[in-house]
Amino acid sequence: MPPLIAARGQMAVSLAFHIVWASLGVGLPLMMLLAEGLGLWRRNPVWYSLAKRWSKAFGIMYAIGAVSGVILSFELGLLWPRFMKFAGPIFGLPFYIEATAFFIEAIFLGIYLYSWEKLSPFVHWLTIIPLVIGGMASSLFVVTANAWMNTPTGFRIVDGKVVDIDPIQAMLSPSAPMEAIHMTVAAYEATAFAVAAVYAFAFLRGRRDSYVRQGLLLGAIVATITAPLQVWVGDVTSKMVAQTQPAKLAAMEGLFQTTRYAPLTIFGWPDPTTGRVYFGLQINDLLSLLAYDNISHPVKGLNAFPVSLRPDTQIIHPLYDTMVAIGFAVAFLTFWFWFQYFRHHHTVPKGRWTLLGLVAAGPLAFLAIEFGWAVTELGRQPYIVYGYMLVKDGVQTAPGLDVSFPIFAILYVILGIASVVFLIRLAREKQDAPTPRVEIGQIIVRAEERGEAVPEHPEHAL
Amino acid sequence: MNPGTLAYFMAFALWLSVMAFAVLGGADFGAGVWDLLAGGEAGERQRDALIRAIGPVWEANEIWLIFLITGTWTAFSPVFYAVMTALFIPLTLALLGVVMRGAAFAYYTHFRAAVTVNALWGRTFSVASLATPFLLGAVAATVASGRVTLDAAGAVTANVITSWKTPFALSCGCLAVAACACLAATYMTVEASNQNATDLLRIFRRRALISGVVTAVLGIVSGWLASFFAPYLFSGLTSRALPLALAGVTAGILTALALLLGFYRIARMLIGAAVALVLGAWAVAQLPYLIVPSLTIAQAASPPGVQAVVLIATLVSMILVLPSTYYMLYLFKSRDRRRPRLTADQYIQSLEERAEAASEDVGMPGAVSADANATPPFAIRSIAAVAVAMGVAVVIGAVIDRWRHLRARFRLTCHRLRN
Question: How far is B139 from chain A (nearest CA, A)?
Answer without folding.
Answer: 14
